[in-house]
Amino acid sequence: MAKDDTSQYSMDDLIAMRERGDYVPTRPDAPTFEPDEEFWQNARLVTPKNKATISLRIDAEVLEWFKAQGKGHLTRMNTVLRSYVEAHKQQPKPPGGQR
User: Fold this and answer.
1) C-alpha of 89 from chain center
2) Contact present, 83 and 73 (Cβ < 8 Å)
3) Scanning 10, 60, 92, 98, which has its CA 20 to 30 A from the CA of 2?
4) How distant is the alpha carbon of residue 30 from its chain centre?
């Protein structure tokens, strides 16, 4: 991830950084938008519907490796699993449905 990539931060993180006076890079071509009263009256909370909360038993070494990569380890784990799923969707299922 690029050093100036702010996608690794939550909105609260970015606001706190700005309030502390930390540099939060903005692309020169980024559009500006000041939400007005009408925006907030029509705003709605959207929660992703395709995520499931589970309990997963995983090797401690694997979990520690992902955690050592920094904030967002669960998202990275999901990305790895997603890429595995996408790669295997292309392959025909063997007899009995097991891989």
Assistant:
1) 22
2) no
3) 60
4) 21
Cα dist from 33 to 11, 12, 46, 87, whole Å = 15, 18, 20, 39
**Alpha carbons 22 and 16: distance in angstroms, whole number:** 9
What tens digit of pLDDT does each residue of 62-81 get?
Answer: 999 999 988 889 988 988 88
Cβ partners under 8 Å of residue 9, min gap 6: 17
pLDDT tier at 59, thresholds 50, 70, 90 = very high
Residue 37 phi/psi, 5-degree rounding, is -60, -40
Confirm if 18 and 24 have CB atoms less than 8 A apart. yes
Q: pLDDT tens digits for 30-51? A: 777 788 888 888 888 666 678 8
Token pair, residue 30, equals 């980024």
Task: Quote the pLDDT of residue 88.
Answer: 82
